[in-house]
Specification:
This protein is mainly beta and 520 residues long. It contains no helices and 29 strands. Helices cover 0% and strands 72% of the residues. The strands form 3 sheets. It has a 24-stranded antiparallel sheet that branches. It is globular.
Length: 520
């Protein structure tokens, strides 16, 4: 044969090529503690010929990857006086694929990286640390994308190490520049952060932590949008155990957040949690959350309380009763009130049977909702959504104005772009949001969404939800047989002509097989 049909050649010339540690090399006051490095070179060549009817294809693929890394640690005078860590890396990558019937593809990737850290008075009552990090990456896909990114970070950390009141002060400056060299689009971020953190325990059963941070954030997107924010944040966290066995616990979280700039608002959050382990395998848990947001458009005040009683009978039956109440007050153009009451029970039963396990669960809850207000457009601020590929994400409110949607990262500083980073899809009365693969929103990342929606006015409803599930696992989970039944209805609806209510009755049953890494 003139050509070999399939050739796969993988060459690993150098793996972790060399490493040396605990060196005793010194020049005057400078002492080398250790040095380590790595050199990699990998190559792959592939040739494939195929013929289907009258179409012949010849594909040749070349892939080369190389890299060098070097890390050193040294000190001046003494390792507890001035400690210096220096590292660097360089890693080019090349991929070239040639075809007959489809366009060729050529990619080049390059990464350069330098890390420097200096620690003054290590393991002393006062420790000062400075750092500088620089990395540059270049990515080129022929006739499609050319992206060059520079990322610099520098700053310092001052630590006061003592048992009475330990204190940490830190400063961090980050500059990130990215350019699409083929289109000329640029992305720039300049971020400055100052943070102070201290913690204190007044006994063996408590811990209190206080954090203050100031952030200056500037972000420019392809000269189309600029975001600039000054952010101040204060957080107070407290954890107290009332007994030596830590059966009775109180958690407190208080956060004050003030943001000025492109979008300005002030937010206060309070979370209180109480947990009590009682005799006879009883456990009581209570939570209270307060959320208050004020911006130039509206005042949002939300209070939520939840209580639950849980009992565990041996290791097989768990029973939980719970009650949750939420009240929302929104002052915008008009006054708007909402109240939610949920009460229910959860039962879970697990029993070991010959060759496996039997699992049975049942859940019921009653949901009472009431809304008071006039029909009109209302604003939603910072709705939390997680965008994951393959999963459905709907905005919480129906009748959304498409042009009002603003999607941000959790800091509120980065504004994502429609059709570049995410897309919107109408699903009846609701709006679906999806991330765009290759955009700036990472897969599975949480985002905050602002939008305006049409409020249908005053209404109320009561809903019943029942869910039953049973499964049998046999032969160490080799086989699982399962059945789920769910039903939700609304026996009481007042003034709900403009509502979209989710009635359903669902049966799901099936079988799963799992052998090692294979699952069906």
């Amino acid at each position: 044969m003139r050509r070999i049909r399939n050739i796969l050649l993988l060459i690993v010339l150098l793996g972790p090529a060399w490493s040396h540690s605990h060196a005793q090399y010194s020049i005057g006051i400078w002492h080398l503690r250790n040095i380590s490095g790595e050199v990699d070179l990998k190559g792959q060549y592939r040739q494939l010929e195929s013929s289907f009817n009258d179409v012949s294809e010849d594909q040749r693929s070349t892939y080369l990857l190389s890299g060098i890394k070097l890390n050193t640690s040294s000190y001046l005078w003494d390792k507890d006086i001035l400690l210096i860590d220096l590292g660097g890396a360089y890693s080019p990558e090349l991929r070239d694929e040639k075809y007959i019937t489809v366009p060729d593809r050529s990619e080049v990737r390059t990464l350069k990286k330098v890390d420097l850290k200096a620690t003054l008075f290590n393991n002393k009552p006062v420790t000062l640390q400075g750092f500088y990090n620089f990395d540059q990456s270049y990515y080129n896909r022929e006739l499609l994308t050319n992206v060059r990114s520079n990322n610099q970070q520098w700053g310092g950390i001052l630590s006061l190490n003592n048992k009475f009141l330990p204190l940490t002060l830190s400063y961090r400056n980050q500059v990130w520049d990215q350019e699409e060299t083929q289109t000329g689009r640029t992305f720039n971020m300049d971020q400055e952060n100052i943070q102070a953190r201290t913690s204190k325990s007044f006994g063996s059963r408590d811990r209190t932590e206080l954090i203050y941070s100031h952030q200056n954030y500037l972000y420019r997107y392809a000269e189309l949008h600029q975001t600039e924010h000054l952010i101040d944040r204060v957080a107070l966290n407290n954890n107290v155990f009332f007994d030596a066995k830590r059966r009775y616990n109180l958690n407190s979280r208080f956060t004050w957040y003030d943001q000025e700039g492109t979008s300005s608002f002030r937010r206060v959050e309070l979370m209180e949690g109480l947990s009590l382990q009682l005799p006879h395998h009883l456990k009581i848990m209570g939570n209270f959350n307060l959320y208050n947001l004020k911006d130039p458009i509206q005042l949002w005040d939300q209070k939520r309380s939840r209580a639950s009683l849980q009992h565990k009978l041996f290791e097989s039956l768990t029973t939980k009763l719970y009650l949750e109440y939420t009240k929302i007050r929104l002052e915008a153009v008009n006054l708007h009130r909402e109240s939610d009451l949920r009460a229910g029970v959860d039962l879970k039963y697990t029993k070991k049977i010959p060759t496996g396990y039997l699992n049975i669960s049942y859940r019921y809850y009653r949901h009472e909702h009431a809304t008071e207000g006039v029909s009109g457009m209302l604003q939603v601020i910072n709705e939390d959504q997680t965008l994951t590929d393959g999963e459905l994400s709907l905005l919480n409110k129906p009748y959304v104005d498409d042009f009002s949607v603003v999607v941000k990262d959790v800091s509120g500083a980065m504004i994502y772009q429609l059709n570049f980073d995410y897309i919107l899809i109408n699903r009846g009365s609701f709006m679906e949001i999806q991330r765009v693969p290759g955009g700036l929103i990472p897969n599975g990342e949480a985002v905050y969404i602002d939008y305006v929606y049409q409020q249908p006015g005053s209404y109320s409803y009561g809903a019943n939800n029942n869910h039953f599930s049973a499964s049998v696992l046999l032969f160490k989970r080799l086989i699982e047989l399962y059945y789920n039944y769910s039903v939700q209805d609304y026996p009481k609806v007042n003034q709900g002509d403009l509502l979209t209510l989710n009635y359903y009755r669902q049966h799901v049953y099936g079988v799963r097989l799992e052998v090692g890494f294979a699952r069906a």
